[in-house]
Amino acid sequence: MKQCTSCQEAMDSCISKQYFAIAHLYKNEKPMNMHIHDCYEIYYSITGGKQFLIDNRFYDIHPGDIFFINQYESHYLSQTDHEVLERIVISVSPEFLKSLSSEATDLNQCFFSDEKINHKLSLNPEDQKRFLYYIHKICSTNGFGEDLIEQSVFTELMVFLNQLFFIQQGQNEKEASEYHQQVDEILTYINQNLQNELSIAELSEHFFLSQGYSVNDTWELCGFRDYSNFLKSFTKAVGISPKKYSKFAS
How many structural domains does the chain have? Predict the structure, then answer.
């Protein structure tokens, strides 16, 4: 398979052929505005970068991070100061991926799972090597049987990614549940002590937490998907916003 030279070329090829396309990019492209497109996108970062905004959620990008974006999720990659921004972008036709799936194995699940906590996986060094092995094998295949080899290796790649996705999402779901339980305990404690002047130091000591977390850190640590949901929940329970509470309680 010939590699594409831009994200746009990969998307156009994927959509026109109802197949998949790979772009291995080294330089920063002119950033697109917030957008959606008619194909799935798998974004694998080799050098890291600034931030990804996907479906109203921000993600920091580190080497070895991989993102799954479906055709209905708006997304935007922030401008980076890096001259070199190495990454691999795979555009996939939803219909093509559906054709590779079976009744027992739905390869679309990493894009649409009901248990989807976030869009990002952080691959360990061994999994990074395996991912790059699949990409190299797909892109270096030529000659007789090229199409069948491409398809079989791509199928194996998607099985591998879905397996990793569900392992990590299960871990994230457990952690999120624990964080939600903790924030419920904190809010209950605050409501039971409204007559007292509670400070951040007192809460930190009572719940064995660090005082160093900012409001922006807190919503992620509490397991909320975005700050707006945390803000609504906190304000409803406490009566004022987290930032105002932080100022008054300090």
Answer: 2
H or E stretch at 149: helix 146-192
Kindly report the pTM of this predicted structure. 0.68
What are the DSSP calls for 113-146, one per residue? -TT---SEEE--HHHHHHHHHHHHHHHH--STTH
Which residue type, as a one-letter code, is found at position 218?
A: T
Decide: 146 and 93 in contact? Cβ < 8 Å: no
Residue 202, helix vs strand vs coil: helix
Query: Would 186 be classed as within a structural domain?
Result: no
- Mean pLDDT, the chain, rounded, equals 80
pLDDT in tens, 209-241: 665 555 555 655 555 555 666 666 666 655 666
> Structural domain of residue 229, as residue ranges?
193-249
| Phi, psi for residue 200 in degrees, rounded to 5 | -60, -40
Asked if residue 178 is part of any domain, the answer here is: no
Task: Give domain status of residue 183, yes or no.
Answer: no
Measured CA to CA, the distance from residue 134 to residue 131 in angstroms comes to: 5
Q: Which amino acid is at 26?
A: Y
